[in-house]
């Protein structure tokens, strides 16, 4: 428990809570709503930040990722930018090898450029994919999906800047059997 609180304190000192979501799973709608009331009373979280996902909700993914177009744009621009950066790095390395490299690379400039540009673009796109994966979000999404399959209710709170994730998590933990948080 002490180690967990130290990790929470370090994370709050380093990262802003402006883009953090906290999800909690409840057995009944009544316990979910009671916890929502407790959170609203104990913290400065308001009603617009709280989303309740019930077991019959077919569109729960839209509640978790409300701004999917923004996410798609981010992924698109990340791939364009990092792919172009990989192309430029590949061109620069190819130029260096053609002008100052061994005789083999100097005598075959076309193949040297192809050999350097291809991995440059690949690495740039690969890094963009890693950035776009957002593995930190999978725990919240998996938790809510699992709760819905088991006919449980989930409460998702989108934190604002300077709100304490630790306090909200503690309040939700009183009635919930599972509470997770992740940067959104």
Distance between the termini: 25 Å
Rg, Å, rounded: 23 Å
Uncertain residue segments: none
How many structural domains?
Answer: 1
Main sheet: strands, sense, barrel:
4 strands, antiparallel
Question: What helical percentage do the residues reach?
Answer: 55-70%
Mean of all residue-level pLDDT scores: 84
Secondary structure layout plus pairing:
Blueprint: H1 2-14, E1 20-26, H2 29-42, E2 50-53, H3 60-64, H4 68-100, H5 103-107, H6 109-133, H7 135-149, E3 153-158, H8 165-173, E4 178-183
Helix pairs in contact: 2-8, 4-6
Brief overview:
It is built from 8 helices and 4 strands, in the order αβαβαααααβαβ.
Structural descriptors:
single chain, 184 residues, alpha+beta, four-stranded antiparallel β-sheet, 4 strands, 65% helix, membrane
Describe the structure.
The chain is of the alpha+beta class and 184 residues long. The protein has one domain. The protein is built from eight helices and four strands; from the N terminus they run H-E-H-E-H-H-H-H-H-E-H-E. It has a four-stranded antiparallel β-sheet, with helices on both faces. The longest helix has 33 residues. The model has no long low-confidence stretch (mean pLDDT 84).
